[in-house]
Amino acid sequence: MNTPVLTVSSSPHLHEKSSTSSIMYQVSIALLPALAWGIYAFGLRALLVVLVSIAASMLSEYLLGRFSDEFTLWDGSALLTGLLIGLNMSSSVPLFIPAVASAFAIIVAKWTFGGLGANWANPALAGRIFVFFSFTTPMSTFVAPRTLARVMPDAIASATPLGLVKTAVSGGSVGLDANALLAQTGYPATNLAQSIAAATGFNAYTIDSFLGNVGGCIGEVSALALLIGGIYLLVRKIITWHIPVVYMASLSILSWLFGGLPSGLGLFGGSFFPPLFSGGLMLGAIFMATDYVTSPITRKGQVIYAMGCGFFTFLFRYFSGMPEAVSVSILLMNVITPTIDRFIEPRKFGDTREQRKLAKERTV
């Protein structure tokens, strides 16, 4: 008669139903509102860019899986990487650019370092940054959303609001905030945004940025769609609030305190809300900075990490030649993550202040 084998392990005994694949697919689902708005705003060309990015990502994953003992094509990680890269592209980019970015992300940023869970940087971020510095002009050229296409001049449509403000400040425009600089360049606002602005007192450009009626990358223009996806991830407990909220709050506070300096407005002359809804902040803070592998494991470490992301994003946006800088900022903090984890260790289960004090007395 066979004796049943009893496996004994130390506490705590936790049962978690989620898996790597379920997490990856749920994050992909959370990105669908941003994808849907991107397709509506920029047309079917946006969908084609995303599909090419996903196809290149999954093809790279398949080919490398054939030469290794791990076949991870269907765990959802390659799908999510390709989707994130596609959403970080302009709908006007040549199709080889998202393909190159996805291949670099999977082959170099992910598999070179040992595959899923061993990468030091978020693969989608690494792929986007690689093609951004390799093909800067097409990666910095955008098209107007359909809501503004008829009233937006081509010269303005080819840049994001952040890029236009950066150019105006560099050109010597001083004494004006971001919204006034956009008005000076002739950037239009939708009738809906103007109506809401008249009723609420918020600026029309801020409202359009929140809704998604601005130029930019496919998946970054609508803060509303990204917030819907972020709320879904919070409800499903895929992410916690610490990294996104601290990241966005630190950038907004720094922008409000010091963001007016380049324009000659002095301290407290910057804007609080426009930086939240501009560029790729929402996409980066909710979906890329929260990557399990490349972010700290402790809550305190995550707060420090998020504050660092906010600081670097502020620094690059206002005092460098880059108008965006979310991807570079998160990548820099990915590098620092192991150091944060080294000095901020998780508290052991059952560990108390009295036990630590007693152990310290014994060593003395």
Q: What does it look like?
A:
With 364 residues, the protein is an all-alpha fold. Among the domains are: 22-139, no CATH class; 240-342, no CATH class. It is 60% helix and 0% strand. It has 19 helices and no strands. It starts with 19 loop residues before the first helix and ends with a helix.
Note the main attributes of this structure.
single chain; 364 residues; mainly alpha; 19 helices; globular
Quick gist of this model?
The protein is mostly helical and 364 residues long. It is built from 19 helices and no strands.
Q: Strand share of the residues? A: under 5%
| Largest sheet report | none
Mean pLDDT: 85
- Give the SSE order as H and E letters: HHHHHHHHHHHHHHHHHHH
Terminal CA distance reads 55 Å
Secondary structure: elements and pairs:
Blueprint: H1 20-30, H2 32-42, H3 44-66, H4 77-87, H5 96-110, H6 123-134, H7 136-139, H8 154-157, H9 161-170, H10 178-185, H11 191-200, H12 204-211, H13 223-235, H14 242-258, H15 274-277, H16 281-288, H17 299-319, H18 326-343, H19 353-363
Helix pairs in contact: 1-4, 1-13, 2-3, 2-13, 3-4, 3-5, 4-5, 4-6, 5-6, 6-18, 9-10, 11-12, 13-16, 14-16, 14-17, 17-18
